[in-house]
Write a structure and sequence with these properties.
The protein is mostly beta strands and 122 residues long. Helices cover 3% and strands 49% of the residues. The radius of gyration is 13 Å and the shape is globular.
Length: 122
């Protein structure tokens, strides 16, 4: 079982920026699919961004143009840079990972973190 721990959440003003980090218990070299999702209570989980081992990325519509996903192999972390934050970005943000790169297509990640809360004030 791979353990994923998110960090970096908190309160930020609208228009501001925030960086989230996901630390994995296993080398991310072996995690060929990683992603950030977000969820508001009572609503469906939404893809924010995904990245494969080959470096290719895809982004959900919600934060298109305002988020960047990246891996830091040296620190063994997967990160999400969020800019121009809006109140509607308020959600619990989750890290997901899988050894199978096809998980970025199906969204069926084997491993999930417990989440970090992001709150954007008006």
């Amino acid at each position: 079982q791979v353990q994923l721990v998110e960090s970096g959440g908190g309160l930020v003003r609208a228009g501001g920026s925030l960086s989230l980090s996901c630390t994995a218990s296993e080398s991310i070299f072996s995690l060929n699919a990683m992603a950030w999702y977000r969820q508001v209570p009572g609503k469906e989980r939404e893809l924010v961004a995904a990245i494969r081992g080959d470096g290719s990325t895809k982004y959900g519509d919600g934060m298109k143009g305002r988020a960047a996903i990246m891996r830091d192999l040296g620190k063994n972390t997967m990160n999400l840079q969020m800019n121009s934050l809006k109140p509607e970005d308020t959600a619990e943000y989750y890290c997901a990972a899988d050894r199978d790169p096809l998980a970025t297509m199906a969204g069926n990640y084997d491993y999930w973190g417990r989440g970090t809360q992001v709150t954007v004030s008006t």
